[in-house]
Amino acid sequence: MTHHAELTQGLAAIGLELTPEQITLLEGYLGLLAKWNQTYNLTAIREEERMVSYHLLDSLTLVPHLAGGTRLLDVGSGGGMPGIPAAIARPDLQVVVLDANHKKTTFLRQAVIELKLPNVEVITERVEAYQPAQKFDRITSRAFSELAEFVKLSKHLLADGGEFVAMKGVYPYEEIAQLPEDFAVSEVLPLSVPGLDAERHLVRVVAK
Prior knowledge:
Structural class: alpha/beta
Radius of gyration: 16 Å
Strand content: 15-25%
């Protein structure tokens, strides 16, 4: 199966309707990720064909759960996941992809330029030191840290009424139990990633 066929079938399975232009952008991002990964070690997945399910479709399962948000922060974005695919799928969303690793943010800046993504800002910073002019109504991470650490380090960036939407593998019982006392889980949703035989969950966390 071609990357294009796998991506379009996967989008249909997730329930995301994207334009041909958006699909072209996702494929362009995949190509850049595979190319830069050869020298910058952006992801442990080295085969481009596996990146469709492991990175694109996995990241895009977040998008249906961002309703109501206008500003999204992707903490520890690495190679840009889930922030870049989410920004492509939701051009109305202002997305900040943040990582402390200069090599990774160099790639992210180049990707934003080449793909012409006006709704994406790249920040090279440790999350606890980041002080933006405006806070975020949605904060996500895919492989940044355990849930409690993620919330502790980035809670100063959450707008009133906002929520954390953390992407996790197996149901994170222990991580949820260790959340700071002033935060609570509002929902844990199982996610199904087309082409990926692994457990995935989305954890919504809100301030009490």
